[in-house]
Amino acid sequence: MKGWWGRILRVDLSKKKAAVQEYDPEIAYKFIGGRGLAVKILWDEVKGVDPLGPDNKLIFAAGPYNGLPLPSSGKLVVAAKSPLTGGYGDGNLGTMASVHLRKAGYDALVVEGKSDKPVYIYVEDDDVHILSAGGLWGLSTFETERLLKEIHGKNLGVLTIGPAGENLVKYATIISQEGRSGGRPGMGAVMGSKKLKAVVIKGTKEIPVADPKELAKMSKESYNEILEKPGYEFWSRQGTMAALEWCQENGALPTRNFSDGYFELARLDDGYAMEAMKIEKRGCPYCNMPCGNVVLDSEAKKSELDYENVALLGPNLGIGHLGKVSVLNRMADELGIDTISLGNTLGFFMELSEKGIIKDGVKFGDYEGAKQLILDIAYRKGEYGNILAEGVRYASEKLGGKEIAMHVKGLEVSGYNCYAYPAMALAYGTSPIGAHHKDAWVIAWEIGTAPIEGESRQATEYKITYDPEKAGKVIELQRLRGGLFEVLTGCRLPWVEVGLDLQWYPKFLKAITGIDFTMEVVYEVADRVYALIRAYWVREYNGKWSKTMDYPPERWFKESLKSGPLKGAQLDPKKYDALLQEYYRLRGWDENGIPKKSTLRKLGLEDIIPELEKYTKLAE
Amino acid sequence: MALRIKLFGTLAHLAKTHELNIKLEREKPIGEILREYIPNYDKLKDVIIIVNGLRVNEEFLVKEGDEIKVFPVISGG
């Protein structure tokens, strides 16, 4: 095979052994890599286990695109059975570990078992060591990476957890390079449960590709195309932070636990506020359009900002002060916690405090209170730290407030408020890991270009519609954002944000692997991956599955936008349900969102039918 | 007639202003106006034009006193 190594590094921390597994090339062709390889391994090997027990497996999965000098290729999927949701969990982060894993001669690293003492894994090509992390346990992610680089040198990749992962916070993530974070649904906790503090990788091999000359030519051309895009300059100025002003203007900002879509102090948190404070830019390996905008926060320390971090820790908490929001963001990165779930959970707690359900709690706008809560959560201390560390679904069951808990399948909603946007609500409802915007983002399309049946006038009022076309649009985007880019794996932002031609990617795959990957083949891989992820959820939930798992938070149906031009907007549950049924119809899933047998056969997944039928009846 | 057009995001960056203040002799379709003042307008993927709270297409004739906002199509990161 060219492009793929066909090799997975397996490290067993219980047995303290490492081995190289050569995997069947058929798996490479069917799943490509990244998220596809990860779900295949989880389906085959991680069944009915305790996510924080030794039988869960922590998978670091790359694909044929990684390790090569191609646009924004420095990304790595991290996956496991999720301790937060109980289902399929993954994330993706930019890290030198992606480059080095591939240059060390592996397509993936799978960590199994559990160490009795804190350790870290050190890989240098074929040499694999399990080393003591006694002196690192308890340290922040920043400090851990700094020390590991002092010990082993700077030219390598480092992945670490912080105190949050060590303390099994359910939305702890894995951090690299002081701010790249991945694994929202608790991949950091899985790593902590194995007493694995870090993974350090150094790779020096050359990755075998089918047509190196053509690849080098395409690399140069595609990188240049990015630089010449008209949106490049503004992207360089604000990165994803441009979304804050946009959402504020369109009633999509998560404000005060998603209770409204506008924030009166948005100007103090937005991209222009960020530009006034920016001191540095950071990016992932092999990226020429870095999105990491670094500011000095209110404690004069560096904090790397993104839209999601700021939206969930700023407007969502009623804090209109970017310097302070940046402190909260940096704390999360140092402690190794997902900023989205953290901001969402804090917002939930603040609203309970405002309502008096929590006495002497922390109210909206209380920055000092928020800081203390973050520490309480990371260290599971204080009156509420332990409860909030479990996430908003559990916290609402324990404390009350289920009607204002903003999650899907137990994963907290990210930075887009959907009272007025049914297609985006569908995107959240059907995202493979729980509420996340990665797989499909459709708000601008819903406002600007979604066709409205019967409308052909020059001027139209924005109407909340549930046209079946919206289901098709969500799937179209999931095939790319959650499919193509998650199996390559590579960053979707060159295409998503500045419009790099999508046709590059099948061409890259062909030059790397020698195989003619058309977009049709890529879509089939994506559909296969989505169906297998869905099957995994159904199995791990013991067949207790229904369409309500794909419903967005009830707040968007029961309440409405309180201010702005879209005041009064809310979603309609019956119409949402019809849209969801259309989504299932297009995917070939039954009325409960379970893949039909004919669909599984069509996608080459017939081998999972006997297993899945043990848990639930499958439609034909 | 005098027109005020609010620009957002990359559109404001390209036009080098957050607000266009234009004097027109006669009515013009909004698309034509934007094409004139925003460099590389045609290379951008779509814009969203809102006039007095209504979404309009590029042929729409804007007039004095209209509240005009033009947004880029962002893709949510």
Kindly describe this structure.
The complex is a heterodimer of chains A (620) and B (77). Chain A has 620 residues and is of the alpha+beta class. Chain A folds into 3 domains: 7-202, Aldehyde Ferredoxin Oxidoreductase,  A, domain 1 (4-Layer Sandwich), CATH 3.60.9.10; 252-412, Aldehyde Ferredoxin Oxidoreductase Protein, subunit A, domain 2 (Orthogonal Bundle); 422-613, Aldehyde Ferredoxin Oxidoreductase Protein, subunit A, domain 3 (Orthogonal Bundle). In chain A, strands 2-1-6-3-4-5 form a 6-stranded mixed sheet. Chain A has a 4-stranded mixed sheet with strand order 8-7-12-9, sandwiched between helices. A 3-stranded antiparallel sheet of chain A has the order 13-14-15. In chain A, α2 crosses α19, α12 (322-335) packs parallel to α14 and α17 (422-430) crosses α19. The two termini of chain A are 36 Å apart. The mean pLDDT of chain A is 97. Chain B starts with a strand and ends in a 5-residue tail after the last strand. Chain B has a single domain, classed as Beta-grasp domain (Ubiquitin-like (UB roll), Roll), CATH 3.10.20. In chain B, strands 2-1-5-3-4 form a 5-stranded mixed sheet. Chain B has helices at residues 9-15, 30-37; strands at residues 2-7, 19-23, 47-51, 54-56, 68-72. The radius of gyration of chain B is 12 Å and the shape is globular. Chain B contains 2 helices and 5 strands, in the order βαβαβββ. Chain B has 77 residues and is α+β, with helices and mostly antiparallel strands. In chain B, β3 (47-51) and β4 (54-56) form a beta hairpin. The interface between A and B is medium-sized, with 37 and 29 residues.
